[in-house]
Design goal:
The protein is of the alpha+beta class and 383 residues long. Helices cover 37% and strands 25% of the residues. Strands 1, 2, 3, 4, 5, 6, 7, 8, 9, 10, 11, 12 and 13 form a 13-stranded mixed sheet that branches. Helix 6 packs across helix 11 and helix 9 packs antiparallel against helix 10.
Amino acid sequence: MEVREVKKNKSELLQFINFACRVYEHDPHWVSPIKTDLLKSFLSEGSDNKINCGPHTFFMVWDNNIPVGRVLVGINVEKNHRNNINVGYFGYLEMINSYEVLKMLMDESFLWLKKHNINRLVGPLCPDDDVEGRGILIKGFDSPPVLMNSYNPVYYHELLSQYGFTKDRDFYAYYSDNFNELKGRVEKVAEFAMQKFNFKIDKVDLKYLEREIKDIAEIVEKIISSGDETENGFEYANPPNKDSLLIEVKKYLPFLDKDLIYIARSENRPIGFVFAIPDYNYVLKKINGKLDPLGLIKFLWYKNKIKGIRGFAQFVVPEFQNKAVNAAIFKHILEVAERKQYNYIEGSCICDNNLPSRRIFENAGLSPYKVYRVYCKDSNIVS
């Protein structure tokens, strides 16, 4: 076996992307990304590139010219500088069930980082994105992931642990298909909180998109300025600003349900928001990573049959935390889910130390049904 650095061209990056199909060939729960979109993001410059936050490279392990493992390794320069840390990250890890393959990938990753004077590695992460593909699934293998969440074979945890990786953070996903019970638990506290603490809940108005984005960016800015960003919902990625939020929202605009995005305001000041999105993994499963003419027809047909939603962004400014703002917003989202006949909702992924957000679901009687782990390790590579 040998490990090779992947050239950043279409041919070799497609080999990197397509290798996942071998790992999950017989797995009924895996959902393939849209391969052309992933390739475009790897090749693009600027905001369309998923890994535009610093130097990075791709490695693959080959066994007699057959691919058996892959990984991306990189450095989020902005994050390191802003938080006075010196770490690298890995992502897009896929491999056969072989410790030797994992060891070759990680040894090579540490050697590459050593050239940049870095000896600590965290992951898996989707670079510069604290929502998509974060962590290794360690609990909840009996169902497909919802949109933007990761999925992997059971043996990944064992192999990473064998190499010496340990837990950095765990992230929880909560699931419910009983909207009546959830509504009953949040309605009373929501009504009481809105009156006592003088705030209201507004559905986002896409006709005034820039204004709404400005308010969301203001909420994020207040949260970050109040303390350590790694303890305020941006554990690994760069916090968004108004411009980056606008780019992201416009990119996903065709897939959004405007009835699932709410901003809380007090005396016209934005104080919190919750962002939910239909679970498009149901559609992606049907097209199997191919958005060719047939795939596009399937996409348009199945997108109207989506039955679940994912709530994946919930932020409240410090002065209104622990005042049931998120609960009040979730009351509205649950009402929409019922009206539009969604069958389930997943709230994810919530960091294990984010107790206020966890309480929203756990006070409603839910417990994590999936757990994702981000690992860390210091190098023992000697050059």
